[in-house]
Amino acid sequence: MIKFTLVTITYNAASVFMRTAESVLAQTYHCVEHIIVDGASKDGTADMAMEYKRRSDGMANGHEVRVVSEPDKGLYDAMNKGLRLATGDYVCFLNAGDFLPDESTLHLIYNNARLGSFENDTSRMPAVLYGDTDLVDNDGRYIGRRRLVPPERLTWRSFRSGMLVCHQAFYARLDIARRTPYDLRYRFSADVDWCIRVMKEAARMSLPLANVHATVACYQREGQTTENHRASLRERFDVMRRHYGLTVTLAMHAWFVARAVLKRGR
Questions:
Q1: Which of 14, 86, 193, 194 has the fewest CB atoms within 10 Å, counting from its CB?
Q2: Helix axis angle, 246-265 relative to 226-244, nearest 10°?
Q3: Mapping DSSP to helix (H, G, I), strand (E, B) and coil, where does residue 217 land?
């Protein structure tokens, strides 16, 4: 069967880690690898991850769980570490606090993307599988649908209008993902850049991107300090400028500002 690798990055995440882990453990799809890359947490997160691994190992239909806990150079360095460790056909990053909507999520992705037809020739599989995202609060309670909606047909140019697919709902073929690791020059927006580069590589290889027409992730919305928010916006502008050119990027940002003003005026 097609194998899914889920990578969870943790650092002092004891209060939310098990929500993520339990959602993976409950999956009825059995060809699953779950890699936890912990940044040497001091709150017991790594111990929780090891206990989770022992539970999974002891189950008849448990998943492959791998735990690494050591210092890293930040979130995206840890994600690159996860890419190097992964052995699945597809990889997705489900960070601590995020979770899969229900026990059938991976089965739904597999069936809706018709992956069974590619098992004898995995080189023809879609480069990306993507779906919808729900937002949850710090306690995992539903807030609402993510405002940006995945398009029916996604291309690397689609992100000119914003990150239309949430990072947690973006399953990339591992062979492509490994060739396009996260750019560590970015502290806040390397995920946007990574998704665009994965989709560019898909276009170069003439591979499709498959909308699975389902909610595939529950994303814990996090607040940012004003300083980090501004730095993130600056980085995102640079990402868009690099991929789409200065003229297009300026035009799109002018539209974003105009749209925000119109909304405030209603």
A1: 14
A2: 140
A3: strand
